[in-house]
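hey so i finaly got around to running the thing on Endonuclease V from Candidatus Enterococcus lemimoniae. pasting the sequence first so u can double check i didnt mess up the copy paste, my clipboard has been acting weird all day
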Amino acid sequence: MIEMQEQFKLEQEKWLSKIDLHNKFQINDLKFVAGVDLAYWSKYGKEYGVCCIIIIDYVTKSIVEKVNYYGEIEVPYISGFLAFRELPLILKAVEKLSIKPDLYMFDGNGYLHARHMGIATHASFYLNKPTIGVAKSYLKIDGAEFKEPKNEVGAFEFIQTQNEIYGLVLRTRKDVKPIYVSCGNWIDLETAKKITLHFVNEKSRLPITTRYADLETHEIRRIYKLR
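ok and heres what it spat out for the 3d tokens, dont ask me to read them lol
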């Protein structure tokens, strides 16, 4: 396990200098945005996972495509190295898309990671598209602090150390828990926040991109578990 962690760490460090937290696109040019999520289950002593990708029209906010891919999980869960466990299924699901999204949003973190290499950032190098990480809970990073945002839509606080901003905690709806937004790659934090808020509706604190992907993973997992 230690040898695997060291190998994974070297892979993360290889990409670190290639992260670019500036927009590689114009927000007005966005047409299709993908939401990505995964779910897991065990059967006959083996662990399986399914990746669901939902493509949303940026303007109409309607679903234009859904795909999924499932398979056996080969990599054990190791904190800080989740991408190595999830990426094989994600890339297989991406291959099934007929519509190529302009941007991917992940149910997870991006730059908000001890080595700035959460799934949204790591995956960007294989997808070659801008990415955003949207997490439901906070992944604690030593030395990083934040205040609770005000109880109003759009209120936020940076998650930062003395020298660096990792992401932000964002209130998407009044009287509900905030979410945690971070850049993946080829996007700045202000734009990541703006796009996230664009996809939030009255039914959830989460953007519909990752919310619909999350709902889809639960449904597809239920189907596959019965097989």
